[in-house]
Amino acid sequence: MGEITETRYVCTEEFHVADTNGTAFDIVVLGGGSGGYATALRGAQLGLKVALVEGGKLGGTCLHNGCIPTKALLHAAELADNAREGAQFGVHSTLDHIDMAGVNKYKDTVIGRLYKGLQGLIKSRAITVIEGWGTLVAPDAVEVNGERITGRNIVLGTGSYARSLPGLDIGGRVMTSDQALTLDWVPKSVIVLGGGVIGSEFASVWKSFGADVTIVEALPHLVPNEDEALSKAFERAFRKRGINFSLGVRFAGVTQSDDGVHVSLEDGKTFDADLLLVAVGRGPTTSGLGYAEQGLTLDRGFVITNERLHTGVGNIYAVGDIVPGLQLAHRGFAQGIFLAEEIAGLNPPAIIESGIPRVTYSEPEVASVGLTEAKAKEIHGADAVETLEYNLGGNGKSQILGTAGFVKLVRQKDGPVIGVHMIGSRVGELIGEGQLIVNWEAYPEDVASLVHAHPTQNEALGEAHLALAGKPLHAHN
């Protein structure tokens, strides 16, 4: 769910809302994003009576103005780069122009198909969908437009919104990702405030579309939550692409006119561009929803839970972006499944945050799972950790694709692999195996003995583990 701007109650043809008449549900879910709808689907699958309250569209931020639309733009950006750079592969193609109306039509078609599929899934599971903004009014009840919906268990999944900085107003040529996703023109120049996942992905798209891009990041590195080796390699790759960035200096202010924006930093530097994208993270949508009034503990707007996502009040649970930690759709989805099984009494294992894969879908991509080298040394001690980097220069498929990068492994000495970190084109598709390696506590020797298909980028994971197991082949280790 996004920011709450209105209260409404609508019945649609897709979802006929039955008169609840005070009937208690097994689960009432507040919010139909990745965490909320996963709770509802799995709960219904387990035979529980479920009500799902959503004031916007099912699928939430991820489907409508997050994961899916941004990745559609990134795919269009990849095609633009391919057309522009075809000659190096012997294909003499040229890029005529970017038709943003066509790009947006393609993007919206993808969203529409997935949205229709999700609606069908919810309908097929006999989940009672209540359209409208809900408020928590008791440990066992949510109110929607004056109607009280009672549940033996309440799951809060109200999602997040695009944050700004204090005193930085959004409007006109100063925008968040919400407005950027609806642009019907390609800016000639853009300042991106924030070098994390969202900022880096938009910077990548706009550069591919032909814009002059500058990223402003107050922390010392781009993608600052990643292993430092990946951050430095990412910066080199962006620099090579002609994406400019300013690191380690805070934003001071912006003015705008009909012609563009004028951005100033605390060190006195200034930048001018057509637009300023504010990509400083996402905040939890919890204000004004009755959470604090019902005794829930909030920290900077986030709902505090234990490892089993229980809030400490009644049978109230929280899921997804409102729970401190990684704000990722697949995290919320997994938490939703976990909660449905927890409520059904199946006692599922708690989700380990470090075992959740993370991907930045820019060019190049960054993908990781497990502990960074710095975090591993903090937890286990510097002498108890070893690392290895395998360069994609030794990987046949990466050479075919023309991408640079590497796989970095972090392991406990004489123990399992506890971190997999990758940078390069398409490496996000490799993180599935990385997740299995880390979460199943595999030793390098375990992975080295597996046969990886040739030629694939997936081989890079096999080669990296061969090297870490002491028998490097396509590597100088």
Automatic annotation (TrEMBL):
Its cofactor is FAD. Transmembrane segments: none annotated. Residues 25-336 form the FAD/NAD(P)-binding domain. Residues 356-464 form the Pyridine nucleotide-disulphide oxidoreductase dimerisation domain. Its EC number is 1.8.1.4. NAD(+) binds at residues 194-201, 217, 281. One of its GO terms (cellular component) is cytoplasm. FAD binds at residues 71, 134, 158-160, 321. It catalyses: N(6)-[(R)-dihydrolipoyl]-L-lysyl-[protein] + NAD(+) = N(6)-[(R)-lipoyl]-L-lysyl-[protein] + NADH + H(+). It is found in: Cytoplasm. The active site is a redox-active disulfide bond. Belongs to the class-I pyridine nucleotide-disulfide oxidoreductase family. This is Dihydrolipoyl dehydrogenase. The lineage of its organism: Bacteria, Bacillati, Actinomycetota, Actinomycetes, Micrococcales. The gene is lpdA.
